[in-house]
Amino acid sequence: MTGAPMVLAEKVSKNFGTNKVLRGISLEVARGEVLCIVGPSGSGKSTFLRCINHLERVDGGRLSVEGQLVGYRQKGEKLYELKLSEAAHQRQDIGMVFQRFNLFPHLTALENITLAPMRVKKQSKAAATARAMELLERVGLEDKGDAYPAHLSGGQQQRVAIARALAMDPKLMLFDEPTSALDPELVGEVLDVMKGLAKSGMTMIVVTHEMGFAREVADTLVFMDEGVVVEAGPPRQLLSNPQHERTKAFLSKVL
Amino acid sequence: MSEREPDPMLDPDPAKKLPAGGAQRAGQAQPAGKAQRAGVSEADDSPAEAIVAIPLRHPWRNVIAVLLVLGLAVFVLDAAQRPDYGWADVGKYIFDRRISQAAWVTLWLTIYAMISAIVIGLLLAIMRLSPNPVLKSIAWLYIWIFRGTPVYVQLVFWGIVSLIYPVFTLGIPFMTPWVTIPNEVFTNLFITAVIGLGLNEASYMSEIVRAGLLSVDEGQAEASTALAMSWGQTMRYVVVPQAMKIIIPPTGNEVISMLKTTSLVAAIPLSIDLYGVSRGISAVTFTPVPLLIVASLWYLLFTSVLMVGQHFIEKRFSRGTGRMKTDKGPAAPGPAPTAGPGATGALGTPGAPGTPGAPGAPIGNDFGGKG
Fold it and tell me: Interior CA angle at B123 toward B119 and B128, to 5°?
């Protein structure tokens, strides 16, 4: 089990009705690796990310995190869908950061961070708060604990959202276009936090349009289009010398 | 008298209107010309000259206001002397023990009916949002029937249910029942009234709760799920607290509306409530009008208290929203913008809050902001 890659996708497919969003995604993410996924909108990047923590159900292929099948249990030849509580248990080790932050607006920054550790991991309020303060400091917002999300800038909100995900001590962090909803001058502060996180050895899968970030931080860069992985490799190589026509066309537009 | 009154009032008005209009035109022309010039050439001018203009006059508003005030005064003066109003009797019965006891009955009817309506309504709302098509359809059917028939008719029906089902039995259908219990639920008219009112109101409450739950952004439940919280935890800590902001104002309206609807329990027939007792007394004393006034004054007292209460509860549940201050410090300028012009009147009809417009309906609805 411990030798298994953090994430292993084998021909993962996903349909929304007749619309085939993912058409056989195969990739592997090792422990401590930072994988960036780029591609045009509608290419299935976000859907794939959401499959990893079972916000979407995988329809075909095999997707496993740390050797454990996501959303299903295999018994002999048959697959059994997991109970909601079992699926929730799987998600404990996976943190997710959303494009639109999705902070809980009725709770302060501190309460946003402590909610899940207290309710899911049954931590004491004191312990959860102490950890939350630590995380707020880590994302540079130690003085914003009592602020409601509506009173924080987009960049600050996203940093709180990262701290909220980290509070569950995840082994894997998923970022779904974390800077796409931000004003340009606020992008940097969020990327800095993510760089720090990558340096600390966190396994990360980042769907992004920030090519600079991908070039600097990613170990592997994946280009997705129309539900398939078109090309993958070390970011410098992929960005400077794309092999595939579609990759070339995409990069020529965004670089 | 009231017909002749407006004429002298009307006469000076056209005269007043002309110079006023003229002055206004002149006043407008000047700044407009200035603005044009400024737009073309002088981009960063010194501090702009303040507009000094004669405000637009509204003569017809004044006329209508005066007419209304006069009409009201005439009505009040007349009513004060008219013997049928029996003001002496109003004074006599307003604090009558029978009346105040009946007021308690009305209050408890309201409270019990609303509690059952909220519980059943919440269940129905969750059923309607469930992915199970059977649960969904049953909830829909319930709402269709209970919202689609008059509450008066429903109450008459519940009044005769004890005749349709004289006993409750438990057992296999068409066989000798194991247990037979006499139907004492529907022979108790107070309980019948609570059930009748509660079941009807539940259909409205379910729509209010559903609108509230749907108003919470999907991303909220998603973020909560991603944090490994269960469905129950997501509802309890994330969705419902945010839905409350949408649910509370129309629910306050429903409470107020329910307080008044309790008078319909006469259909069951239950006659120990405020309206029933008032009618009972007037049937003996032959003074219907004073007792209607007495009952109305008590209803007004209760609804007024409820409106004030609603105002404070709304304030409490709008924490953390952008327009409000945080809970530190006074929320002085906060509540004002929430009382939107489209808000349903606090004394609105029972049907109004459940209409499909509810999800996007303005939040505010305090007694200060009635449309």
Answer: 145
Categorise residue A207: left if φ over 0, alpha if ψ from -120 to 50, beta otherwise. Answer: beta
DSSP sequence for B242-294: HHHHHHHHHHHHHHHHHHHHGGGGGGTT---SHHHHHHHHHHHHS-HHHHHHH
CA torsion through residues A194, A195, A200, A205, sign: positive
pLDDT in tens, B256-271: 999 999 999 999 999 9
The C-alpha atoms of residue B291 and residue B297 are separated, in whole angstroms, by 10
Distance CA A158, CA A178 (A): 7
- φ/ψ of residue A200, rounded to 5: -75, 0
Q: Which residue is associated with the tokens 């409000």?
A: B324
Contacts of A104 in chain B (CB under 8 A): 220, 223-224, 238, 242
Q: Is the pLDDT of residue B90 over 50?
A: yes
Q: Show residues of chain A in contact with B217, CB under 8 Å.
A: 102
Contact B59, B9 (CB under 8 A): no
> What are the residues of chain B with a beta carbon less than 8 Å away from any beta carbon of chain A?
217, 219-220, 222-231, 233, 237-238, 241-242, 319-322, 326, 328
A186 CA to chain B: closest CA distance, Å?
Answer: 20
d(CA B308, CA B115): 20
Query: Beta strand pairing status for A203-207 and A220-225?
Result: unpaired
CB A243 within 8 A of CB A231: yes
Inter-chain contact A150–B320, Cβ cutoff 8 Å? yes
Across B16-34, average pLDDT: 44
Give how far B130 is from chain A: nearest CA, Å.
15
Better-scored residue on pLDDT, B295 or B369? B295
Do the Cβ atoms of B194 and B113 come closer than 8 Å?
yes
Whether residue B314 contacts residue B252, with contact meaning beta carbons closer than 8 Å, is answered with yes
pLDDT at B200: 97
